[in-house]
Write a structure and sequence with these properties.
Elements: H1 3-11, H2 56-72, H3 89-100, E1 102-108, E2 111-118, E3 123-124, E4 128-134, H4 140-161, E5 165-167, E6 178-183, H5 185-189, H6 192-198, H7 204-211, E7 219-224, E8 231-232, E9 234-240, H8 245-259, H9 285-294, H10 305-321
Parallel strand pairs: 3-8, 4-5, 4-6, 6-9
Antiparallel strand pairs: 1-2, 7-9
Helix pairs in contact: 3-9, 3-10, 4-8
Pfam families: DUF2927
Protein name: DUF2927 domain-containing protein
Keywords: Signal
């Protein structure tokens, strides 16, 4: 998404106002003789509607409040970074090592938990063919908005990595190997059969985590190298449809980039979407360099950090000097 398009989305965030009605009454100076009081009536029961906290309506309001708070605190930036976020070639190399050679999740008894651990360089070797898949509960208007973010972003990823990356038709998703599901709460709870078809080897634990996604999880990505050779051959991303526009765009940017082989976050990476601070919502100029480094042919899937360090340090220096 371009900077101007992102700014237009920010301006579309609208504050709501509340109206208070005031009733008045008057008294007569000489009241007439009071009539006998009417027979008491049974109170009319009031209908109280309690929106369940796992309903789409509740979640839309919940995430809208989160987005509004982040915008007030200058988070979800879409400017890519600037004079206020300088970084050096040493910082770029250090951030690449932390993000590409570590994963923020570990497997414990087949469950995915948040625990960083070292990994070998992992990326796609075959062409990546993305497809959007919307749940039945997602409106046509929202689908159009998300396509406007998705389509140019796929072209950008292809250009940055110099790897064959393309978008496949939603109606005839032939050859798709990276599916991006955008689902409402009800859609997601019924997604098991589609997920099994899309990624047959998805674990029961991962499937459970998707269906019963925690409220503080806005999106997730799962990538597989079925040959255990650090070459990704299939991936799935799941994004909540209840997220406001900016947060959905942020999920698209981060999960798709992570699914290409950048599985970790770093608190020192700035400007970057690979940072849990949420300062930046869209891929930054720093992140573009990370993707270029990841798909540089001098690096190969299966390399460990120690083996690859002299190579990616040199690549970082070249990128920062403009010689690449």
């Amino acid at each position: 998404m371009s900077r101007s398009a992102f700014q237009n989305l920010v301006r579309a965030v609208v504050a709501s106002t509340a109206l208070t009605a005031v009733a008045a009454c008057t008294l007569q100076q000489t009241p007439p003789t009071p009539a006998p009081p009417p027979a008491p009536e049974k109170p009319i029961p009031q209908l109280v509607i309690d929106t369940p906290k796992d309903s789409s309506a509740y979640l839309r309001n919940y995430y809208a409040r989160i987005q509004a708070t982040r915008l007030v605190h200058d988070q979800l930036r879409g400017d890519g970074g600037g004079p206020d976020t300088p970084f050096t070639e040493a910082m770029l190399a250090r951030n690449f090592e932390r993000i590409a050679f570590n994963s923020e999740y570990s497997k414990v008894e087949e469950r995915r938990i948040t625990k960083e651990h070292p990994v070998k360089l992992t990326r796609w070797s075959k062409p990546v063919r993305f497809a959007l898949s919307f749940g039945d509960g997602v409106s046509e208007e929202q689908r159009g908005v998300d396509r406007q973010v998705f389509t140019p972003y796929i072209a950008r990823l292809s250009r940055l990595t110099n790897h064959p990356i393309s978008a496949v038709s939603e109606t005839v998703p032939l050859g798709v190997n990276f599916t991006v599901f955008i689902l409402t709460e009800d859609d997601r709870r019924a997604i098991a059969p589609a997920l099994r078809r899309t990624m047959p080897d998805i674990s029961d634990a991962d499937l459970h985590d998707v269906i019963n996604m925690r409220r503080d999880t806005q999106c997730a990505v799962f990538a597989r190298d079925r040959g255990n050779d650090n070459r990704i051959d299939r991936a799935v991303a799941v994004i909540r449809a209840e997220l406001p526009t900016l947060m959905r765009a942020a999920c698209l940017h981060e999960e798709l980039a992570q699914g290409l082989g950048l599985p970790n976050d770093s608190p020192s990476a700035r400007p970057s979407i690979f940072n849990d601070s949420d300062e930046f919502g869209l891929l930054t100029n720093h992140d573009e360099l990370l993707l270029q480094m990841l798909y540089d042919p001098r690096l190969q899937p299966g390399m460990g950090a120690d083996e690859a360090r002299p190579i990616f340090t040199k690549i970082a220096a070249e990128l920062m000097s403009g010689s690449v």
